[in-house]
Design brief:
The chain contains 7 helices and 3 strands; from the N terminus they run αααααβαβαβ. The chain is mainly alpha-helical and 225 residues long. It has a single domain, classed as Antithrombin, subunit I, domain 2 (Antithrombin, Chain I, domain 2, 2-Layer Sandwich), CATH 3.30.497. Strands 2-1-3 form a 3-stranded mixed sheet, with helices on both faces. Keywords: Glycoprotein, Protease inhibitor, Serine protease inhibitor, Signal. InterPro entries: Serpin_dom (IPR023796), Serpin_fam (IPR000215), Serpin_sf (IPR036186), Serpin_sf_1 (IPR042178).
């Protein structure tokens, strides 16, 4: 199977059910005959490895999505269920980069990965390829997906962690002041402005009512047109 075909099938499988956080935003293309732009491909000698990596991550992400859906649907209070499993798994995988011991173990296992079968650098490498490919411009569709860590400014993060989240997940670490009620309210405004900008104004209130004891807010946004 060609790499590009396998990639298309993977992304369709990941996104087809529950990944639109901007309901009702749809634009028809009348008479547009321009073919989609080709997606970037790795060197020929690496395609077999990349294809295998995509397939493995796709299957595990699919299993995670249905387990999570089953859990949410078991609550009788919920009626319509609308979420992005890829966003959730990506955000949790990002957190695993900075976790240790039991916390790290629970994140990895919760996502459905077994480090005896899949090396952790392979997991992060596959997510890197998915995030990068989704965010490539295309004249038929537009997908913007990303993460940001808003961290209490008195608790600076290790440079190696910041480099990894930026390199692997195209994420940002933003020093933020949460220390009092006024600062927490200003931090909420800062986070909402950030998400609003990243989603072309479609998501205007991602967070509200932040507590002054907040130390970190992990934001994942996804925009699909």
């Amino acid at each position: 199977m060609k790499f590009t075909l396998c990639l298309s099938l993977l992304l369709t499988g990941l996104l087809q059910v529950h990944c639109h956080h901007v309901p009702g935003h749809h634009e028809e293309h009348n008479g547009d005959q321009n073919p989609p732009k080709p997606q970037p491909q790795p060197p020929a000698e690496g395609r077999g490895t990349e294809t295998t990596r995509y397939q493995k991550i796709a299957q595990i992400n699919s299993d995670f999505a249905f387990r999570l859906y089953k859990l949410i649907a078991s609550d009788p209070a919920h009626q319509n269920i609308f979420f992005s499993p890829l966003s959730i798994s990506t955000a949790l995988a990002l957190l695993a980069l900075g976790a240790k011991a039991e916390t790290h173990h629970q994140i990895i296992n919760g996502l459905g990965f077994n480090l005896s079968d899949t090396e952790e650098n392979e997991i992060h490498g596959a997510f890197k390829l998915i995030v990068h490919t989704l965010n490539q411009p295309n004249n038929k569709t537009q997908v913007n997906m990303g993460n940001a860590l808003f961290i209490e400014e008195s608790m600076p993060l290790l440079p190696t962690f910041l480099n990894d989240v930026q390199t692997l997940y195209e994420a940002e670490g933003v020093p933020t002041n949460f220390k009092n009620c006024a600062a927490a309210a200003a931090a909420a405004d800062e986070i909402n402005d950030y998400v609003k900008n990243k989603t072309n104004g479609k998501i205007t209130q991602a967070v509200e009512g932040l507590d002054k004891d907040t130390l970190m807010v992990l934001v994942n946004y996804i925009f699909f047109k």
